[in-house]
Amino acid sequence: MTTFASGTDTLTRDALTVLQPGFTGTTAPDWLLRRLGEGLASVGLFGRNITSAEQLSALTAQLRAERDDVLVAIDEEGGDVTRLEVRTGSSFPGNNALGAVDDVDLTREVAAELGRRLAACGVNLNWAPSADVNSNPANPVIGVRSFGAEPALVARHTAAYVTGLQSAGVAACTKHFPGHGDTAVDSHHALPRIDVPADVLSARELAPFHAAITAGTRAVMSAHILVPALDPDRPATLSHRILTGLLRRELGYDGLIVTDGMEMRAIAGTYGIERGSVLAIAAGADAICVGGGLADDETVRRLRDALVAAVRSGELPEARLAEAADRVRSLAGWTTTAKTARPQPAPDTEVGLRAARRALRLTGADAFTPLTDPPYVAALTPMANIAVGDETPWGVAAELFRLLPGTETGTFSGEDAGLATLAAAGPRRIVAVVRDEHRHPWMAAALDTVLRSRPDTVVIEMGLPQAPPRGALHIATHGAARVCGRAAAEIIAGA
Q1: Residue 123: how many CB atoms within 10 A of its CB?
Q2: Options 75, 182, 186, 260, the catalytic residue
Q3: Sign (positive/negative) of CA torsion 238, 21, 387, 483?
Q4: pLDDT band of 8, cuts 50, 70, 90
Q5: Biggest distance spanned by C-alpha atoms of the chain
Q6: Which residues have CB under 8 Å from 67's CB, separation 6+?
Q7: Would you call 188 a catalytic residue per the annotation?
Q8: Phi/psi of residue 65, each to 5°?
Q9: What is the pLDDT of residue 26?
Q10: Which helix (H) or strand (E) holds 475?
Q11: Exposed, middle or buried, 196 (CB in 10 Å: 0-12/13-18/19+)?
Q12: Would the pLDDT of 369 be above 70?
């Protein structure tokens, strides 16, 4: 039986219902179980909470023993952003690889298999897909998380992803509304601003969200970005004009609106999480995502009390909070029904690798002879953005070692990276692995140095392939997932 809140009034229960907090550890802490008993309806999971599929299944079962309709959410995009496989790298290429292939049936199949694995572990809400049109190549936070830079391509793959994911009974949460692709600032650190006319926004940024809504996406995540053409005063997450006026009324969306993480500096550094949460609900959001950084009972209590106080002071209409809580419960009901009513898709454990292989783009392949001796892999490594994290391995060294035992590797960055690579490699053939060369002058300079001395170097671009291809063989993988590394390694070793 579902455990409903006990000992709490309706207002307090609704305030808890709209929160989507995180926690630390691989089992549910007592405070979280207690809050589920009081009305909390959602829990967010991150890489720190997951060690294996078996452990994750036990964790979600523990949560459902307290409340059987709990929404268990996760940030599992596949590709560079993975929580299920945070310590190994993803079995699925990310959006940019799928966009490079441009086969909507393949995108649907990848999303369905990802959804099947999430559902098997007890996860029923995925904060994905990213529907952002990556129109700014310098974007520091979206990049390969986007299907591409062309609105129609992003729209058709967003719709396919939503359909595939939800075919497994896992609710999609299309993000980051109204579009985070044309930014040069990471909203984890500051408030980005998009200064383009409304007609450009409509034709470019909004097209994938139209497609997602038509495909039936059960949730949409707001972006912490300022879009003056839509609202010159408040970022989208806090904007009534954007969430209610645009998303609800103009686009006709009636599902759950979830905020991006409220502890991100774009909100926390300007409004604070309590004030920001009140403004977000008042603007039309239904669920407050928090827990990537602040993951404790004190945070839940602070946000609950801020919402209750705002209702009691008249700042937040009680009906708006109740409506938001009802949407959370409605989505929980959909996931419960979907779990029992929908036939689960058959496992397709190789679909991610097939997609990664198809996404490769090779330059110089005609003159390339596969390696038979173990090379030296030089990973020219930039600082990871917060969404990706630095705990997930990437590159090709592990896969090349499997195919060519004795392969050695090193990590390099900064102005001396090129010389350090040459010194470390010695006489071995060099495989230089880069990530967004076009955004990092030191990385381009390091490749210049290496290629001047060793023109037989193989170059693998595992970010956006914006820089001109170079090297004896250039491989663009369109992402840094484990399967992308494996697909590239197969080409190098002729496997």
Answers
A1: 27
A2: 260
A3: negative
A4: low
A5: 73
A6: 2, 3, 36, 37, 40, 41
A7: yes
A8: -65, -25
A9: 97
A10: strand 473-476
A11: middle
A12: yes
Backbone angles phi, psi at 287, to 5 degrees: -140, 135
pLDDT at 292: 83
What pTM did the predictor assign? 0.94
Q: CA of 451: how far to CAs of 300, 473, 488, in Å? A: 53, 12, 20
Q: CA torsion, points 240, 242, 244, 245, in degrees to nearest 10?
A: 100
Question: Residue 327 contacts by C-beta under 8 Å, 6 or more apart in sequence?
Answer: 255, 256, 257, 286, 287
Rg (CA), the chain: 23
CA distances from 372 to 406, 410, 451, 455 (A): 11, 20, 21, 18
Residue 27 has pLDDT above 60, yes or no: yes
Active site residue 474: no
- Annotated catalytic residue within 180, 188, 224, 478: 188
Could you tell me the CA-to-CA distances from 234 to 222, 245, 389, 401, 480 in Å, in that order? 13, 14, 28, 51, 35
177-235 pLDDT tens trace: 999 988 776 666 668 889 899 999 999 999 999 999 999 999 999 999 999 999 999 99
pLDDT tens digits, one per residue of 242-277:
999 999 999 999 999 999 999 988 898 899 999 999
In order of 278, 292, 306, 490, the CA distances from 299 in angstroms are 14, 12, 11, 47
Nearest in space to 390 (alpha carbons), one of 435, 360, 347: 435
| Model pLDDT for residues 170-185, shown as the tens digit of each residue | 999 999 999 998 877 6
Q: 103 burial class (0-12, 13-18, 19+ CB within 10 angstroms)?
A: middle
Q: How far is the C-alpha of 189 from the C-alpha of 185, rounded, in Å?
A: 8
Token pair listed for 262: 């409220």
